[in-house]
Write a structure and sequence with these properties.
Length: 365
């Protein structure tokens, strides 16, 4: 079998190890694996399946199409699948049938949910959808403001009395930018939970933290921590390597040397079979490198279908040599976190933007 020109190798064994490590770290809080944006380019269905095999019982989907796709792919309703971002006028009928947990931020969304519940309520097998009522604690992304919160909770409690919903969870999203701001957000959230419970909501589960705060701070873990980045082995705070926080990068981007051109004076450049059409950011030129046979060669140009590296003096490259753009570091390559740092973005962004045309090859756990 010939190696593809470019491929993203997804190590499900590394994913399993990361998940196991993160679950132990956040316990007794539960770990939710967030697979939005196609699991940041790693592939939502294979990642979700591995997560479930690794013991995960909560998956964050962001949108309803992803949530329904996960259900259709065989993620059963012993696993919570949460969605929370909808266009106005969303029809929740399918979501309720598929037992998707629903993040709800406003009275308008709650009404859309209860309208669908009312239509389904008489039908056989109807189970009231579990709501995750979202409070805004300063990020202003979505979520009810503190002023709107009591009205949202009161309406949800009334719908629960009518058998239309369950007031299962309360949640928010914290900025993870400064410790003080996160501490204030935590306090605003706990105040909001107290208000909700006084108003009659059950709130069995409280969650607010993602990768960064969830790994660093015990006090923000509460009942559940939602993580994307750390599951794929991409540190989401500064100054640490993946291994220093017990993580293994899951994606390795591989290509091959297409041609070598001698430039005289013992200088040479080589063409490598991945370009910006594959999602390689153009500004890795001058900042990042590609490893070939254990040696890092600086990237000098990124074109659409290939990139160019300056061959390190004293090394010989040949057509067909395997080239590793980023990965775990085991073959001398940089990690995607290093690529992000050096090129002024996030490792998360780089894996997420690896193009759909790049085949994903899964290494089973
Ligand atoms: C993306 C997202 C997460 C996961 O964020 P990471 O920093 O990748 O762990 C958690 N919660 C919500 C609401 C998100 O949108």
């Amino acid at each position: 079998m010939t190696a593809p020109l470019v491929e993203a190798v997804i190590d499900l064994g590394a994913l399993d190890k990361n998940i196991t490590h993160l679950r132990r770290t956040v316990a007794p809080a539960e770990l939710m694996v967030v697979v939005k944006a196609d699991a940041y380019g790693h592939g939502r269905v294979p990642v979700a399946r591995q997560a479930v095999a690794s013991g995960i019982r909560s998956i964050g989907a962001l949108d309803l199409d992803t949530a329904l796709e996960l259900r259709a792919s065989g993620i059963g309703d012993d696993v919570t699948v949460l969605s929370w971002l909808y266009p106005p006028g969303q029809d929740f009928t399918e979501a309720i049938r598929a037992r998707v947990d629903l993040g709800v931020s406003s009275l308008a969304e709650l009404t859309e949910v209860t309208d669908a519940s009312r239509r389904l309520a008489g039908a056989e097998g109807f189970v009231p959808p579990r709501l995750h009522l979202k409070l805004d604690t300063g990020l202003h992304r979505n979520g009810a403001t503190a002023a709107d919160w009591p009205a949202l909770v009161t309406a949800a409690v009334a719908a629960e009395r009518d058998g239309l919903v369950r007031t299962f969870a309360a949640w928010t999203h914290i900025a993870e930018a400064s410790e003080d701001e996160d501490t204030r957000a935590l306090q605003r959230f706990l105040d909001g939970v107290a208000v909700a419970r006084e108003l009659g909501a059950s709130i069995d589960v409280r969650h607010l933290a993602a990768s960064s705060a969830g790994l660093r701070r015990e006090d923000v873990r509460l009942d559940l921590v939602r993580m994307g980045g750390h599951c794929w082995g991409i540190p989401s705070f500064d100054g640490v390597t993946p291994s220093e926080i017990g993580l293994i990068p899951v994606m390795t981007l591989r290509a091959q040397v297409l041609a070598v051109r001698e430039l005289g004076d013992e200088h040479a450049e080589a063409f490598v079979s991945a370009g910006y059409g594959d999602g390689v950011p153009r500004n890795v030129a001058g900042t990042c490198s590609v490893a070939v046979r254990g040696v890092q060669h600086p990237i000098t140009r990124v074109e659409r279908d290939h990139l160019v590296i300056a061959v390190m003096p004293g090394t010989e490259l040949a057509q067909g040599d395997p080239a590793v753009l980023f990965g775990t570091g085991a073959e001398g390559e940089q990690t995607v976190r290093q690529w992000g740092d050096r090129s002024g973005t996030l490792g998360d962004e780089i894996t997420t933007r690896i193009a759909a045309r790049v085949p994903r090859r899964y290494l089973e756990a």
